[in-house]
Amino acid sequence: MVLYAAIFTVVLTLFAADSQAIDVVQRHRLPNGLTVIIEEAHSAPVVSVQMWVRVGSADETDKEAGISHVFEHMLFKGTGKRTVGELASMIESVGGDINAYTSFDNTVYHLTVPSRHFATGLDVIADAIQNSSFDPDELKKELEVVLEEIRMNEDSPGRTMYKSILRNAYTTHPYRRPVIGYQETVSSFTRAQILGFFRQWYVPNNMTLVISGDVDGSAALSEVKKAFRGFKKAEDPHKKRPVEPAQRGLKTEILSRPIKDAHLGLAFHIPSLKDPDVYALDVAEVILGGGETSRLYKKLKLEKSLVHGISSYGMSLKDPGLFFITAVLEPGNIGPVISEAISELERLKHEGPDHEELGRAKFNIESDFVYSRETMDGIAGKLGYFETNLGDVNYEKKYIEGIRRVGSDDIRRVLAKYLNPEAMTVSALLPKDAPPISRDAIAGTIAASLKAASSKPVNAASDTKTTKVRLENGITLIVKEVHSNPTVAFYGAFPGGLRFETAEKNGIGNFTGAMLARGTAKRTREELSREVDEMAGGVSGFSGWNSTGASGKFLSSFFDKGLGIFADILLNPVFPEDEIEKLRKDTLAGINRQEDNLPGYTFKLLYKEMFRVHPYGMPAIGTRETVANFKRNDMAAHHEAFFAPDRMILTIVGDVKTDYAIEKVKAAFKDFKNTGKALARPLLDSPPSGIVKTGEVKDKEQTHMAIAFPGTTIGNEDSYALRVLSEILSGQGGRLFINLRDRLSLAYSVSAVEREGADPGIFGVYIASAPDKKDQALSALMKELEEIRTNPVTSDELNRARRSLIGSYEIGLQEVSSQASDMANNELYGLGYEFSKEYPGKIEAVTVEDVLRIARKYITLDSYVTSIVGPNGNKAESEPKP
Fold this sequence. Notes:
By secondary structure, this protein is α+β, with helices and mostly antiparallel strands. Helix content is about 45%, strand content about 20%. The relative contact order is 0.09.
């Protein structure tokens, strides 16, 4: 571990040094639209010149499949002033190399020459790009070469399996086609098609020229301008690509070929390059299958000898890509390998990576970037890729920062979100003489593997010692020992929050909670901040819908001092006048900003109508009027009324011994003896009598719409089926996303909302659409609500929703602070501090019939509240108060 830390420090140092070079990257846009990237690098007398063209196989029509690749073959086949072979000969004669490649999203022409021959290299690229002749005889010959390449690929087991996965995983998007095309399309290409393709795509405003190496940047730019001065700008040739619908279910293809070994591929849909989840997915691919220390290699190759080789990698592209797990193996091991791979995947989802393997994976990724800067070609390729695919030539910094931020919980989250074995694509390529295997057998193996994985105990902090005691002053103390990491969390909760506020003092709970850590009888705000920062910890107060209190988290080595500060802010806040004024200013600014957050503002208006009597209808932050009038005495009175030991649930989770924690808590809270006043339960609202409309007209680009019905309470038996119902509607695999976004293109954001409270909350749906699609969006929402309350959901939908809810709950309990808050709230709301063990069973017990019953009970299409905010938003039509 010491050696690893030392190496990692070296990488950081190297990367810091390299970042200075990144800062001097020059980016220019010529009048004709050509983007020029230049990075001076004088470590060797070499220069790389690359032309990145923003066209690839995914930009082709079905009839053009493979034309980008054919064009790439033809570009160096002679120009108006140079014969066939002369362009390549010029480069090779000075000791350089020249080549090209085509991908789904780009075509790249690249050469490397000694820097003293930069002018030759630039001339060759400029001549080929602008003046290729596309000789008919050469085209005929080159088409035969490409057809032979296609036939050669047919003999490659790896490529055959790869193509099988693509054509099954993608049903609509052009990523389903091989970059090289098909024999029938390639053999049909004519010179007229090639020239048409050239005129459409090979225009300067669709290209990026990258120069990296031992050149003077200013002089190089001057040469580029001369070389491309006659290159004319044209219209942007790009058209919107088809959107691939979410995969719903397992897809399997089994092939046989005259080969020796079997080849297996598993693929999962992942987001596009620009999605921030890519950072965690890239780290996950290294942990799972990136080399001999990866989980899959160690388990399936080294320990069980089930494969000849195995790896995982992400195909991250401009549009959503795929995450692959591929293996070469004996035919008889297909089932065991699928089973073990899923077992390792599910284990990583539940447990997350350990500290060392997470660090090693990030170290390997950063190292690749360091090594890529050893060659001019590596530097240029990276710059071209970032500029062309991400629109940011300096994206390397952002990417490395993203990789460094990835934590264990991020790995678990993205694996649970994207790598679902029940919605993956499987390709198995078998030798002709191998015993056959059926799709049903593979599906059965996957189902059995998932069942086995879900029944295994998770090696997480939940399987530890937990103790509950009641102290003499009435505090309910719960201590859970978790010794896997040297951290400890405190969470103190009391009944309180918005639920017990009045209109006159709306927001006082939120304000008081925020003031707890702004000065005590023992410490000023500055002293609190300094002491907490010195321990790398954190403390804060809170107030929500149903509770109020404080939380803290520290390294366990600072347990005593951390507990002392936590107790201090809970017991001894003094609410300094100067801090009150600072917080008042910040809070009023936050209230003013509410209207800028249109989704939140839409629901603010909705809550106001749904809860006309109950305090849930008020904003937790308060109003301008109430916040402006808060006095120090209001906070002191609120604190005295709600912070009472006989109502307090105090949880401590982390690396501490139970007996020690109990004794320290007794000492820290020995003077906490006041008894709060009895808390009156607020009045409840009657359900809406008819359709109640609220909203506001705002001059914005989108219209935000929410429809809501009265919901249920925390712990009510209906709540579990209602959560499942909400999950079936929500998420990228949910009905609303698939039907309203993917199929009808009505919105970017659409979801279901389910919020429970100590008193009944809400269930509803939300969509944001273009103003001219408002009526269609509302109609589509109502149609989905009618459908789900009329007909049973499918078993696949039910299983997806149950897995998603349980998985996200488990992922959310990784940190000791999350466990502390979960136990405290569960105990406070009467569920019991060990409810986390019961929750998965509650969700698993929900049936198709339960979902239909709950949908019919809560989705009352003749009685609900709708809130619409936007250019054509609602004007409030209030019903009489009950």
